[in-house]
Amino acid sequence: MRIEGGVMIVNVRRLVVTAIFIALALGLKFALIILPNVEPLTVTFFLAGYMLGPLSGLITGGIGEFLYSFFNPYGAASPPLLMAQVLCMSLSGLAGGWVRRLSSKRTPPAWLWGVIGFFLTLIFDLATTVSEVFIVKLGLAGFLSRLAFGSYFYAIHLSTNTVLFAVLLPVLIPRLQSLTVFRNLPRAQALSDRDHSTRAAAADTARFQSESAS
Fold first, then answer.
1. Residue pLDDT, tens place only, 107-132
2. What is the dihedral angle through the alpha carbons of 56, 60, 63, 64, rounded to the nearest 10 degrees?
3. What does the DSSP 8-state code read for residue 214?
4. What CATH number has the domain bearing residue 56?
5. How many CA atoms lie within 13 A of 48 on its CB side?
6. pLDDT tens digits, 42-92
7. Which pLDDT band holds residue 186 (cuts at 50, 70, 90)?
8. Which residue in 12, 30, 105, 116 has its CB near the most CB atoms, within 10 A?
9. What is the DSSP letter of 44?
10. Of 37, 43, 95, 34, which Cα lies nearest the Cα of 64?
11. C-beta separation of 100 from 169 below 8 A
12. Mean of pLDDT values over 186-193
């Protein structure tokens, strides 16, 4: 998926791979649902963005998190919490695409992956805590109290996601990049406006030369 002239162009292969990433994220999360604050969603959505591009990553994270939160067997999240969760997971997918663009010539080291995972998880935890405090209208004191009482669970969430990013991404990214299905997708997604303008100018030149010759 990409946007040209204000119109979204859908690549069927990219759409299928996006659906696969969503299904993978949900399958892994439901398999680990009994483990408190252990979730593979963040790293999976980030990986989707890295492999497919920012827009596809944003869509993958948003749809995937909505499906998980809304159809959670423990009950659907309240609207403010659901919104915070969807926005944060969309950010994770978007961040994956941004990191790919910024590090196109060199894959980041494992420790940097861990740092990225830590901060994405921290944003998620803070945003969801704010939404919960907003629901019950506890104010700043309630927010700080919620952070204090939930510090153990936050620590588990932050540490596990840091490890998942640092351990899995350096292994998975090179292997996925070697697959045929991914070889042309990032380049198509990463085309800049300058690239599009250059191609359009070349097409206009060729058409002009053809008309002149005739």
1. 889 999 999 999 999 999 999 988 87
2. 180
3. -
4. 1.10.1760
5. 35
6. 999 999 999 999 999 999 999 999 999 999 988 888 899 999 999 999 999
7. very low
8. 116
9. H
10. 43
11. no
12. 42
User: What's at 43, amino acid-wise?
Assistant: V
Give the bridge partners for 8, in sequence order: 3
Written as six digits, the tokens of 23 are 């299904």
- The total number of structural domains in the chain stands at 1
Burial class (CB in 10 A: 0-12, 13-18, 19+), 203: exposed
- Measured over the CA atoms of residue 135, residue 138, residue 143 and residue 145, the dihedral's sign is negative
Please report whether residue 192 resides in a domain: no
The residue range of the domain holding 18 is 2-181
Task: Look at the block and give the residue holding tokens 């959670």.
Answer: 72
Residue type, 104: S
Name the token pair of 193.
Answer: 């406006």
* 208, part of any domain: no
Q: Which helix (H) or strand (E) holds 7?
A: strand 7-9
C-alpha to C-alpha distance for 94 and 197, rounded to whole angstroms: 24
Please give the single-letter amino acid code of residue 164. Answer: L
